[in-house]
Amino acid sequence: MSKYFRTRTSWGLALAATATAATVTIGATTGGPPNPPPADPQARPTAGQGKETQTGPRTTERRRIATSVLDRDFTFTLTALRSRTDPLAASVRLQVFTFEDGAWRESDRALVGKADSWFWFPLTGHHAVCEFSTSGTEPAAVAVSMLITPSIGCSPAENFRIDHGRIVPA
């Protein structure tokens, strides 16, 4: 009887966690994170020539981790930006879009926390967004809390106000 109770309880918790994750991480990508790049990303072995270095700049890897739409007034997105210098670090960008002339146009953007202060893999994995709440009041209120690591837990909520399409820290 005890075994049946544990299975039922863990199934119930998994169901509750899945339902919560679906409502919080709207627009999250599916699948696991990609493998990290090799230790020396500038080197590519070629036949008989040793190392060949890349000459072009590396593009920033980015993943949209959450989106919220408020009527036809605002669209908010949270995007993870992988660091160019540290493959394990990332930044989180909050963008605000307003609906003008029949199209969504970016009105402002801001970093959540400091640049490269997040870990890439927890940020782009399951349950990365702990809180992403938006409000349709004027000025609109936005609160963001992200997973630091599974063992540490969530960050304190960072609050913003959206005043006429512009992001203002609250």
Model description:
The chain has about 170 residues and is an alpha+beta fold. Helices cover about 15% and strands about 45% of the residues. It has helices at about 1-25, 120-125; strands at about 45, 50-55, 60-70, 75-80, 90-100, 105-110, 120, 130-135, 140-150, 155, 160-165, 165-170. A hairpin with a 3-residue loop joins strand 9 and strand 10. The N and C termini lie far apart (about 50 Å). The model is unreliable at about 1-30 (pLDDT under 50).
List unreliable stretches of 5+ residues: 1-31
Shape from CA axes?
globular
Percent of residues in beta strands?
Answer: over 45%
One letter per element, helices H and strands E, the order comes to HEEEEEEEHEEEEE
- Using the CA coordinates, give the radius of gyration: 20 Å
What is the number of helical segments per DSSP (H or I, 4+ residues)?
A: 2
What kind of sheet is the major sheet? Answer: 5 strands, antiparallel
Measured between the Cα atoms of the first and last residue, the distance is 52 Å
Helix fraction, binned, reads 10-25%
- Judged by helices, strands and strand pairing, the structural class is alpha+beta
What does the average pLDDT come to? Answer: 76
Question: How many strand segments?
Answer: 12
